Amino acid sequence: MLGRKLCLLWALVTLNVWGAREGQELAGRNVVAIQYEPKEQPIDAHDLLTAQKVEVGKALDAKQVAETIDELYATGLYEDIKVYAEQQAGGVAVRFVTVPQRFIGHVQARGKIKDPPNEAAILGDAQLTPGKPFDPKDVEEARQSIERELRLNGLFKGKVSATTIDDPLTHQVTIGFYVEAGKRAKYELPVISGDTKLPDRTIIAATGWRIPVIHRWRQMTKSQTDKGLDSIEKKYTKKERLTANVELTSMDFDEAHNTAQAHLDIDAGPKISIRALEAKVSRGKLLKYVPVYEEGSVDNDLLTEGARNLRDYFQSRGYPDADVTFKREPVKDDQEVINYYISTGQRRRLSSVAIDGNDYFEEQMLRERMFLTTHSVLLRYGRYSESFRTKDEEAITNLYHANGFRDAKVSSSVEVGYKGKPNDLAVTFQIAEGPQWRVSALEIEGAKDADAAVLKAQLVSTVGQPFADVSVSTDRDRIHQYYFSRGFVSASFRVSITPDEATHTVSLVYSIREGPQEFVRNVLVSGLDVTRPSLIQKTISTIHAGDPISTTKISQVSKELSDLGVFASVNSGLQDPDGKIAYKYVLYDFEEANRYTINTGLGLEVGQFGQTTNSLSQSGGAKGISPIASLDISRVNFLGRGQTLSLQTKYSTLEQRESLNYTIPRVFNSLHRTVTFSALYDTTQDVQTFSSKRAEASVQMANRLNRASTLLVRFAYRRVSVGSLYIPSLLVPQLLQAVRIGSLSFSYIQDHRDNSADAHRGFLNTVDTAVAGNFFGSQRSFGRVLLRNATYTPLGRHLTFARQTQFGAILPFNVAAGTASIDEIPLPERFFGGGSVSMRGFGDNQAGPRDIGTATETGTASGSATGFPIGGNALFFNTFELRFPLLGSNISGVIFHDMGNIYTSLSDVSLAFKQDGRANFNYAVQAPGFGIRYKTPFGPIRVDFSYALNPPKYDGFSNSLTIQQLLACGTTCTSGPQQLSHFNFFFSIGQAF
């Protein structure tokens, strides 16, 4: 088509240039003027100057005119070009009349959209990529494709219309699809044909298209249809009909009743019976290792893979001589039998894995890459199979090849009867390293001297270094990256390798073809509706007109724009990427995210709670269940500035919290600096001693220093009060009155964990410091520090040793005369601890000092002691955990030991094991335990059981006496010795740390 168009244009050029005007020939006359209509051309001035072969002051040449047309068409920026030549005084004027090519700009979908399909799916069906040449036919095809998607989702009456808006300056075309989804159809009784071998009612029930019990038909969606077909196939799989074929031949729409009737053609096929002979294999193992169940089909390749998997399974279970074959029996009586013949041989254990010939690498480095494992407590027979042995040979070989040992060979042998024990195996890996090849010379061709010098500093395969194919691949990537970031988007790389067998060296020649360099003409932005252009301008300002096009920078800017959190998608690219021009537009097309986000949650916490209570018999807490409900509402991109306004609420029997936050990202034009203004109201009843209320206003600046480190600076002003205080000896105005606290805090977080929800390696450090004083308007003056260090160390392939240490202290100053240091700190501001995330030897908030009434000279408590916890000004907790697989891939176990306590003050911190009297709680409680973790998409579900070796003893009341009764009876009510429970149970979500 293009060739035909050029021929027509050539004829037009010939006619216009060489046609006689009043009998005068224009060819050969001097060109006195060159004009373009319209005056503003779609091409950049630099590219136009390059493409234009006709020159003012020179003779008019038809060949030059044709070359100019060819060059302009090659840019991809023109849809039509006409040339006119007119006689003027002193020569001829050439006039180019052009029609610019239009390009796809922003594509959007609006109207009455019913999910499914959502807006993203609709735009995906359109398949219109910004920057590509615009063709009205593509828009019509996209419209039809969207309507087909609507019908697949039961929206048979849905209509889609398309509109386009041209930008005369950038020639970008905004394409809008207006969707009128209509009412979604419901399924009706399907028509079932074929050899089904199942009752129709069973097939219909399997589809899930009709709601059970009430028997109402569901609304039709594509996913529901696909799910129904899959469910039918699974039903046949459960009936052992693995070759069943289920086909949806049509979906007929009844417009009068707005229903859709599926026509299903089903061939059930014979029953497939897979049996394991000569060895016992559970059905679950057959389902797991023979892939015909997963694939839903039976062929020899899948059956062979099943035999291989079963062999590896038995070899890994201590049967190294296991051999598995299969045989398919002819179909008989609607059944096909497939027999797996398993010869296990003698059961043995892998006692030794030796490596010989490794001079270059230490043995430990090689073993880290190996599957074979000798027997241990957890692996009774070790881990051995032929496939594992082969994989280990390959892993070791690849390591040597990657370090220059091109001729390295790795073989292995198996010894049966190791050290005279007939059932012991020993595997020996024999390594023939061979010579290490090195790079003797490296030459870079096709690069400028300055570029070659920069490149050589980045390459891996430099002179003297080991030679390896993987190093050359790395160099190729780095060279491409270098040129792609400098506008050479078509740069290519070729390598020539010349080996020298005598010296075991190679000479490398890297040949580079730079290709044309492309530059940024300008940056075009589309798709903004609510967002202010100034928000994104801060980010895209790093791309300047005239800069070389850097695909790396374009992608990085796109990522930074996505990180703003206000866009559903950010698409970047070039206008007419295949056009032969040097200056191109860089495109950023946005799809704004939904501005409102609502999240709801329901949860459950089970454990030994310290909920506020009026009953003195529950001074040690009570086993219970705390339901949790949460509602979070966020308004993103507030005022189009990329800022977020959010309301977060949490309600449970232990706590009620409402928090309003206003977050401003990119403060002071920094990508890593965020300021948050917060207002919070919190009511807590998670300590028996008192309930507390907190009203707080704060401002916080978060500065992400690097990928793993974050610094937080926060100023908070709050009013804390004690709602109910259930300790008679503490019923003093100083503790009951509301207190204003103004504090400045600093937090540093260093997170190098591989997975914050379930870490297996790395470490986490946190430092929290705060100071409150009258210089901040605070009625109490104190300093606070809380330190935490956690490490995660893998032990082998499956074990993880995790440990965590926490230390904290509250240091009051400017203490009023006659006031004890401990009493200077309001009850809600003290440390409380114990429970599933701090110390599992206690119930929630049961650690630390307790109410002892008035201590006597002998260290015992007075009769008014309630034994309720009163918090402390220091804490120390240490936890060890060994995490290991338990059952399958989703259930794991934990053995742990928790130690520590809450202490009265920093000077009282002690690691003593024994409690010194029932009035002294400044010692370290020890609690070993066992836990189970079940892996889920939102984090592991956790169950922990602990046994405290030395739980605190204290004075309290065992009967159901209330605080009011205690106040009424005075000294006639006498407390007695009590002790916290040895056993504790916790159920929650997420690892302990």
Brief account:
The chain has 19 helices and 40 strands.
How many domains, as an integer? 8
Q: Strand fraction band?
A: 35-45%
| Top-tier CATH class of the largest domain | Mainly Beta
User: Total number of β-strand segments?
Assistant: 40
What is the CATH T-level topology of the largest domain?
Porin
Please state the CA-atom Rg, rounded to the nearest Å.
39 Å
CATH superfamily of the largest domain: membrane protein fhac: a member of the omp85/tpsb transporter family
Number of helices: 19
Label the CATH architecture of the largest domain: Beta Barrel
Low-confidence stretches: 1-24, 855-862
Distance between the termini: 67 Å
Query: How would you describe the shape?
Result: globular
- Widest beta sheet: strand line-up: 23-24-25-26-27-28-29-30-31-32-33-34-35-36-37-40
* Average of the residue pLDDT scores: 89
Share in helix: 10-25%
Largest beta-sheet details: 16 strands, antiparallel
Structural class: alpha+beta
Question: What can you see in these coordinates?
Answer:
By secondary structure, this protein is α+β, with helices and mostly antiparallel strands. It folds into eight domains: 2-100, Ubiquitin-like (UB roll) (Roll); 103-180, membrane protein fhac (Ubiquitin-like (UB roll), Roll), CATH 3.10.20.310; 186-267, Ubiquitin-like (UB roll); 271-343, Ubiquitin-like (UB roll); 349-432, Ubiquitin-like (UB roll); 438-513, Ubiquitin-like (UB roll) (Roll); 519-573 and 582-590, Ubiquitin-like (UB roll); 599-989, Porin (Beta Barrel), CATH 2.40.160.50. The chain has a 16-stranded antiparallel sheet. Strands 7, 8, 9 and 10 form a four-stranded mixed sheet that branches. Helix 4 packs across helix 5. It starts with a helix and ends with a strand. 31% of the residues are buried. Mean pLDDT is 89; it is low at 1-24 and 855-862.
